[in-house]
């Protein structure tokens, strides 16, 4: 029998394995991260540096040595790494981190999504950084009935009085600025919408959409079930190994809007399931 290919270490494994070989300052950062991963993901840079006993530039250099641009994308990758190792409950990265990562791609995706609204009259907009940009693009659109779990998305429509914006109720998740829980499912259960525009923690061309948050998976599945069309807004970094909780299979997806970083073979697999794949150039790349 052929030997199995070794699995590449996750980010958290790489930090743990390499800790002893770092310089003193990086050992302090890595030690604090391993001891308090939730604080590292959620606290501001100044507090991380203070707690680790190093300067703010040292924290940033620590993140960059792993190939990241800075703290926000490092923390998102760290949260995904911890979730894949099932180390306790999923630590949701902060809204501010998500908002600045892959921003050029997200803006292009959100702008293109406006062209797919078509004859929609009632829609659901999932919470998320890309969907928030989509909501901002919808401000001047023809009147829509809009259901959303995103508090920031509801706020994006302030002053756009032609739209009717609804929140389903539920428990506030402050870290994601959204509503969650069974109340979301019960509210939308008796309703029908033309289209849901949503994202996901992970997209697999064979297994579909998934997330690390169980409650989010349940409520997104419920929202998908009451929508005639499912349109996914996700930059190409979201196409990776499935997360723990499935939202829907690829056959349920009508269209995916992503950036040109998506590989041809991945796009082809999605298209085999009848998914229309739209790959757009990130803003400023041409």
From TrEMBL:
InterPro entries: Carb_Metab_HTH_regulators, DeoR-like_C, Homeodomain-like_sf, HTH_RpiR, NagB/RpiA_transferase-like, WH-like_DNA-bd_sf. GO terms for molecular function: DNA-binding transcription factor activity. Residues 9-85 form the HTH rpiR-type domain. Pfam families: DeoRC, HTH_6. PANTHER family: AGA OPERON TRANSCRIPTIONAL REPRESSOR-RELATED, HTH-TYPE TRANSCRIPTIONAL REGULATOR SRLR-RELATED. This is HTH rpiR-type domain-containing protein. It comes from Devosia insulae DS-56.
């Amino acid at each position: 029998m052929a030997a199995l290919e070794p699995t590449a270490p996750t980010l958290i494994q790489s930090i743990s394995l390499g800790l002893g070989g770092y310089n003193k300052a990086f050992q302090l950062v890595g030690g604090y991260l391993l001891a308090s991963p939730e604080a590292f993901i959620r606290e501001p840079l100044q507090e991380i540096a203070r707690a680790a006993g190093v300067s703010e530039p040292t924290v940033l250099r620590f993140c960059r040595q792993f190939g990241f641009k800075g703290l926000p994308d490092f923390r998102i990758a760290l949260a995904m790494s911890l979730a894949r190792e099932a180390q306790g409950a999923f630590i949701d990265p902060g809204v501010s981190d998500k908002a600045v990562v892959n921003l050029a791609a997200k803006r292009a995706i959100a702008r293109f999504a406006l062209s797919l609204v078509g004859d929609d009259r009632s829609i659901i907009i999932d919470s998320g950084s890309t969907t928030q940009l989509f909501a901002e693009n919808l401000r001047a659109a023809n009147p829509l009935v809009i259901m959303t779990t995103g508090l920031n998305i509801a706020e994006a429509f302030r002053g756009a009085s032609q739209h009717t914006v609804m929140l389903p109720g539920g428990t506030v998740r402050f870290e994601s600025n959204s509503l969650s829980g069974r109340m979301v499912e019960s509210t939308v259960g008796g309703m029908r919408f033309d289209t849901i525009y949503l994202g996901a923690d992970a997209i697999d061309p064979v297994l579909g959409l998934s997330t690390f948050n169980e409650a989010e998976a349940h409520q997104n599945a419920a929202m998908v079930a009451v929508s005639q069309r499912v349109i996914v807004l996700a930059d190409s970094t979201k196409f990776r190994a499935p997360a723990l909780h499935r939202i829907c299979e690829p056959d349920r997806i009508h269209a995916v809007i992503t950036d040109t970083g998506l590989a041809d073979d991945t796009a082809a697999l999605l298209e085999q399931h009848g998914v229309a794949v739209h790959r757009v150039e990130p803003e400023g790349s041409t």
